[in-house]
Write a structure and sequence with these properties.
By secondary structure, the chain is α+β, with helices and mostly antiparallel strands. The chain is about 30% helix and about 30% strand. It contains 5 helices and 10 strands. The strands form 2 sheets. Strands 1, 2, 3, 4, 5, 6 and 7 form a 7-stranded mixed sheet that branches. It has a 3-stranded antiparallel sheet with strand order 8-9-10, with helices on one face. Strand 2, helix 1 and strand 3 form a beta-alpha-beta unit. It is flat. The chain starts with a strand and ends in a 10-residue tail after the last helix.
Length: about 220
């Protein structure tokens, strides 16, 4: 297990309240290089978000206080594998936009973990996941859109991307969609969880050996 500290940037003025929380992985000698790379990447993403928001605010006038916020959680931290989603939010009055960056890394191997590493890509798993996510999104859009036809015309879900944002938990992976990514009528950040138990015949050997605790139930 890796040791992770919390850091923050707090700046306030007449129109902006900035409260950015982010993780900092404590360096260990034999993993020093990759940990430094991850820490730097996270810090640069946080600073970039802050600078972009401040730049946008300098060009606009608001009557309400503008809040710039980031929060994170340690979704997975075992076997030298970490998964940390960070939510970046801008909030003014009741108007909120949130997007997520996910940092999934195998520290021992010194590499980023993608969805291709989680599932067996020699199968039709991508089509199965796309269909299941599409069904979930249809249920969600029915709650927010005026009609499914409106949603279908403007931004129908087709497939997950190769660089799709997701994070890892001990029993599955969570696919992330930012505010308004699915539809202009859906302001909320959306998460769709894919349980390993539902896809146990499609998991990669890497996932079976390093992540999924119930690997004894997997047949491949």
């Amino acid at each position: 297990m890796l040791y992770i500290n919390s850091k923050s940037i707090k700046e306030n003025n007449e129109i902006v309240k900035c409260n950015l929380n982010y993780p900092f992985i404590k360096k260990q000698e034999y993993k020093k290089k990759i940990i430094s790379v991850i820490n730097q990447l996270i810090y640069e993403d946080v600073i970039s978000f802050k600078n972009v928001m401040n730049d946008d605010l300098s060009k606009c006038r608001f009557n309400d206080i503008f809040n710039i916020i980031s929060e994170y959680k340690i979704a997975f931290n075992e076997n030298d594998i970490i998964s940390i989603p960070i939510e970046f939010s801008q909030l003014i009055g009741l108007y909120d936009i949130t997007y997520v960056n996910c940092y999934n890394y195998d520290i021992g191997l010194g590499q980023y973990i993608s969805l291709r590493d989680i599932f067996d890509t020699t199968t039709n798993i991508r089509d199965i996941i796309n269909e299941n996510i599409s069904n979930e999104i249809n249920i969600i859009t029915n709650k927010y859109c005026n009609s499914y036809e409106d949603y279908d015309k403007q931004n129908k879900f087709k497939n997950i991307y190769d660089d799709q944002d997701f994070y890892i938990e001990e029993d599955g992976v969570v696919i992330c969609f930012s505010s308004y990514e699915m539809s202009k009528d859906i302001p909320h950040f959306i998460e769709i969880k894919l349980l390993f138990s539902d896809y146990k015949d499609y998991l990669s050997k890497y996932t079976i050996n390093n992540i999924y605790k119930n690997k004894d139930k997997v047949t491949n």
